Each structure stands twice: as structure tokens, then as C-alpha cells.
Amino acid sequence: MTEQELIQAAQTGDQSAFGTLVQQHQTMVYHLALRMVGNAEDAADLTQEVFLSAWRSLGSFQSQAAFSTWLYRLTSNACIDFLRKEKRRSALSLTTEGEEEEGRELEVADQRFSPERELEKKEARRAVREGLAALSPEHRQVLVLREMEGLSYTEMAHLLDLEEGTVKSRLARARLALKDFLQKSGNFFVPEPSNG
To answer: Quick count: other Cβ atoms within 10 Å of Cβ 90?
Structure first.
């Protein structure tokens, strides 16, 4: 069955068709939730909540938008609601490492990566996670969608139900807020202006 056929079947109450849709999209929903809330347990709970919400409101889904875009919106909104309720500022995962990558050995050592350089990169990732965690949910949302999920301004505007200009200005403010946080924490330095 095509995705459209699965959606139509699920809209008539076919739980098996909806189960197939869940299987096709659960990884995407979970990873978005994890990046927004920064906690695996909360992300798993939110993933279940999103699919329960999707099942309940499937009848109102309009086929003009892609099903994945609709799920992005449900997930993003659920995460923002969660963050507002919890007022938690937890660390965010910026990596997408899978279990299959753990313990993987390199056959040839790459001399470009010294232990010092790896430590610097690890510290930079930690600083960015802390910076993202310190942002408002709205600023975190646009940074995650743009920088980690790779959505275009048009896709973000559609997903967030905002004007494209509003998305761009919110993203600019989010980047500035992250930069300010990193500067204040000593993890980002502005180059001195040249006198030449």
C-alpha cells in the first residue's frame, strides 16, 4: 500500500494501517523529540503521545501537506508544550549515533585527529548543548529544525504556521542568543577587527 492508501485506511479505523505508518515514521518523530527535549525517556514518552494524538486527529488530516510534515508539527508542538510545562533546561543530543556504531574500531589511525583536538570538539559539542538548553523553547525549536533537521525556511514556515520572514527573524534571534551564551561562557570568541 502507498502512504496515501495507508492514511485513508487508517482514517476509516484500520489500526493495522496506522501501525504501518507509525513504523515508517517513529524514528523521525523520536529523533526530533530527543533533539528538542534532550532526554531519551521524555522523547520516548513524547513519541507515544504524538502518535496517540495523530490517531485521535487523523480524521482532520488534510492531504495537501505531507504526512511527515504533519507529524513534524505535532511533534514540535508537543515538545514545546512539554518544555513550557517542565521548564527544564536539559542537555540536547546533537549526535545521531546508533548502537551499531558503538565500539567500532578504525582500521587505520587518522593522524589529523589528535586527542587534544578530539577533546576540543567534545567540549565544543557540550557547550553548544548547554547553550541550546538555555534558549527559549521557540528559539531551540527553530535552531533544531533548521540546523539539525535541515528544513528550509519555507518548510519551517509551513510546519510552524508562520510567515517565512518571521521564521528568518526568529532564527536570527536564536542564533544571536546562542552566540551570546557561548561568548559569556567563554566558548566562543569574536575575532578582533583588523586595522588594515
So the answer is: 15
CA distance 80 to 37: 9
Kindly report whether the global pTM for this prediction surpasses the value 0.85. Answer: no
DSSP 22-49: HHHHHHHHHHHHHHHH--HHHHHHHHHH
Q: What percentage of the chain carries pLDDT values higher than 70?
A: 78
Residue 18 C-alpha cell reads as 496506522
Distance of alpha carbon 27 from its chain centroid, rounded? 12
